Amino acid sequence: MNTNPRQLHLLAEVRTRTSATVEQLADTLGVTLQTVRRDIQRLAESGLLTRFHGGVRVPSSTVENIAHTQRETLHAEGKARIARAVAQQVPHDCSLILNIGTTTEAIARALMHHRGLRVITNHLNVAAILSSNTDCEVIVAGGVVRARDRGIVGEAAVDFIRQFKVDIALIGISGIEPDGSLRDFDYREVKVAQTIMAHAREVWLAADHSKFNRPAMVELARLDQIDRLFTDAPPPEPFPALLRDAEVVCTVAA
After folding, report:
1. What CATH number labels 5-57?
2. Among the four residues 72, 179, 207, 254, which has the most C-beta atoms within 10 Å?
């Protein structure tokens, strides 16, 4: 689903409170109980909220991500906007590493008309997309292929990526917590992503609005380890100050 401004406000309220009743949300948003229940239904179906009797809370799992097939359609419009914004900033004739994620898949599609790219990836979906660009050389990391999303993880992928030093690492993430940590669910994927970041001259993070205040088990990095953030809505509190302190250039894709 693509969230509208009211649903974004509802999500922000629940994340601020951790949980909220239907009545509290209706009063805060100035809408009817029926409208709140309808929004909650859609957001819960998308995995962004968990319902309980009379209210909702943020999803409690820090150990398992939403299924890849569900993430492919979740916030698809926002991810496409992010991808276009990233592609506008990627120069022709440069080297890139793209990691695992549906947002990096969208970025790969947005790079289809770039010239002279050399792209390293540990994501078979990204490789399949960019291999259709005849003016782009695609290099795929070796390692264990996860069946659920065709991402490549493990020590073999880490060792492979250590050979390179690229212009830009384009990183997706599962969650950005209020302490400024970037988090994901699979420690094997995190180790590869950390190696990607260490072997790039610049690190660009692409994360839609749902990633803010979303918990996950494994810390990948801190905000001060990235150079640019591309997102699809203004970051909620406390992230504007965190981004300023970390000197991260934030681009909100209109």
Report:
1. 1.10.10.10
2. 207
Domain ranges of the chain: 5-57, 68-252
Beta bridge partners of 120: 97, 139
Q: Peptide bond before 215: cis, by omega within 30 degrees of 0?
A: no
CA distances from 156 to 18, 21, 125, 145, 221 (A): 39, 48, 19, 11, 21
Q: How remote is the C-alpha of 170 from its chain's centroid? A: 10
Fold of 68-252: Rossmann fold (3.40.50)
Residues in the chain, how many? Answer: 254
**Which residue bears the tokens 């749902």?**
210
Q: Residue-wise pLDDT tens for the chain (254 aa)?
A: 566 889 988 988 887 777 789 999 999 999 999 999 999 998 888 778 888 777 888 775 444 454 445 544 556 888 999 999 999 999 999 999 999 999 999 999 999 999 999 999 999 999 999 999 999 999 999 999 998 889 999 999 999 999 999 999 999 999 999 999 999 989 999 999 999 999 999 999 999 988 888 888 899 999 999 999 999 999 988 999 999 999 999 999 98
Cα gap 47→50, rounded to integer Å: 7
Based on its alpha-carbon atoms, the radius of gyration of the chain, rounded to whole angstroms, reads 18
